Amino acid sequence: VVGLPDSCRALAVSTATGLTYVVAGDGGCLYNGGSASSGVAANGTAFGPVQAFAAWRDAVFVSSREDSRVRLVNITTGLTDVWVNAGGWQGFSGDGGAGVDAQLDKPDGIV
Question: Are 77 and 56 in contact (CB under 8 A)?
Answer without folding.
Answer: no
